[in-house]
């Protein structure tokens, strides 16, 4: 099977060369763009599998590029940016980015993020959770049709909110979901008290999921940003 086609959007020549050389060395196919306008055009013309996107582009902010791509496509977007503030990360993720890698980054970390995204792409194509009534991840099993979840074959006793959270995370496995996105999906708003409630429900849900035989961690906290369900191999 061909490696995924990756669009690299980066105006800094040394960084762009580092990324493209890394992709070439590991036999990835790639395209490159140096500004937002050409990034949108390349995405429209070639429909890449994954986008690696810098936020600080000369003609438009990377968040605007994300919004434009999201108007027609769900292609995975991994932000690679020197911006380290939580507000920047949250803004990019809320706009539709799937992951956020902070500069300076290691080549190994970049490749690891790409592998995670590839697995998510593969899962979406072959066993999309939206099309399947059953979701499985390690010892976790969710029967969407029956409204039940199981761990090691034993039914989990979840509150309605905990079950909704679990389903939301499972349908976006491997993707960071921001506090704002989750609270809007669960409660229809994102007031401060909703976010405080979210932390409480997520803590109780995590405890129930970690009672499995292997003590596996299913939910990863991104402090100040949100949560991600990990894909268990």
UniProtKB/TrEMBL annotation:
Pfam families: Response_reg, Trans_reg_C. The lineage of its organism: Bacteria, Bacillati, Bacillota, Clostridia, Eubacteriales. Residues 132-231 bind DNA. Keywords: Cytoplasm, DNA-binding, Phosphoprotein, Transcription, Transcription regulation, Two-component regulatory system. Residues 5-118 form the Response regulatory domain. Residues 132-231 form the OmpR/PhoB-type domain. May play the central regulatory role in sporulation. It may be an element of the effector pathway responsible for the activation of sporulation genes in response to nutritional stress. Spo0A may act in concert with spo0H (a sigma factor) to control the expression of some genes that are critical to the sporulation process. It is found in: Cytoplasm. The modification 4-aspartylphosphate is found at residue 54. This is Stage 0 sporulation protein A homolog. GO terms for molecular function: cis-regulatory region sequence-specific DNA binding; identical protein binding; phosphorelay response regulator activity. GO terms for cellular component: cytosol; protein-DNA complex. Gene3D superfamilies: 3.40.50.2300, Winged helix-like DNA-binding domain superfamily/Winged helix DNA-binding domain. One of its GO terms (biological process) is positive regulation of DNA-templated transcription.
